[in-house]
Design brief:
The chain is an alpha/beta fold. Helices cover 38% and strands 14% of the residues. It binds zinc ion (ZN).
């Protein structure tokens, strides 16, 4: 039987989606949606840890979030390839899993792997719907591609209330033990292993939450604005 998902989250590196969209993933699972994660690289260029460690951590992150599947592709960490071969692999992932919505990194970011992943997934999601493009699987086109924000910030198109799922998100982030702050670690310090990094993630969650009048939020950008049927509800609990 083909396993399909409602929401499909692509990340350049395992831990990207946990950091930027983990709360949205966890609450979507709780809300009864089927969710999948695709990591486009194996993390072989990481300053800390190894691909084998990252794979174990990614599995633990997936368990914490409760996602239905997590798969890994091998497009090359630190130089993510976006040629036709990689595009066809993403097209077939989209065709096989038939997501209603695809999530990807914003296609402009400090880390070129993130930006490349964002462009690759956007283009492959469109091409996946072309019937005349023959692969082993029938055409499928998601409703849209939604971008999560990584290093560079852009004005959000919408913010998801992740107050109830925040602890689950941070548990999933904590599964990547090799990457983040450990007081006695002998591995070299990196941008994300500094003590302040997880504080920044929390501060960002609180900032986005404050924008919509809740404790924690995750912000997303779309090229097509979301349709709102309940304008009053969309601003519920707020005041000018
Ligand atoms: Zn990354």
């Amino acid at each position: 039987m083909t396993e399909t998902v409602d929401l499909l989250f692509f990340g350049a590196h395992a831990d990207d989606v946990e950091l930027c969209a983990g709360g949205t993933i966890a609450r979507s699972v709780t809300d009864g949606l089927r969710v999948g994660i695709i990591d486009l690289t194996r993390g072989e260029m990481g300053t800390r840890g190894t691909p084998a460690i990252r794979k174990r951590e990614a599995a633990a992150g997936a368990r914490a979030l409760g996602v239905h599947l997590r798969e890994e592709l091998d497009f090359g960490d630190g130089g993510l390839r976006t040629g036709r071969e990689e595009e066809l692999q993403v097209i077939d992932v989209v065709r096989r899993l038939q997501p209603t919505l695809v999530f990807a990194p914003y296609p402009d970011d400090r880390h070129p792997d993130h930006a490349r992943a964002g462009r690759l997934v956007t283009e492959a999601s469109f091409y996946a719907g072309l019937r005349a493009l023959k692969t082993a699987l029938p055409a499928h086109r998601p409703q849209t591609v939604i971008y999560y924000l990584q290093n560079y910030m852009f004005g959000p198109s919408f913010v998801v209330d992740v107050t109830r799922s925040w602890k689950t998100k941070m548990r999933a982030v904590g599964a990547f033990k090799s990457q983040f702050f450990k007081p006695k670690s002998k591995e070299p310090e990196t941008f994300i292993s500094k003590r302040g990094f997880l504080d920044m993630i929390e501060a960002r969650g609180r900032h986005f939450g404050q924008l919509i009048g809740v404790e924690f939020g995750e912000a997303f950008v779309t090229k097509q604005p979301p349709r709102v049927n309940d304008v009053i509800g969309a601003y519920g609990g707020r005041e000018v």
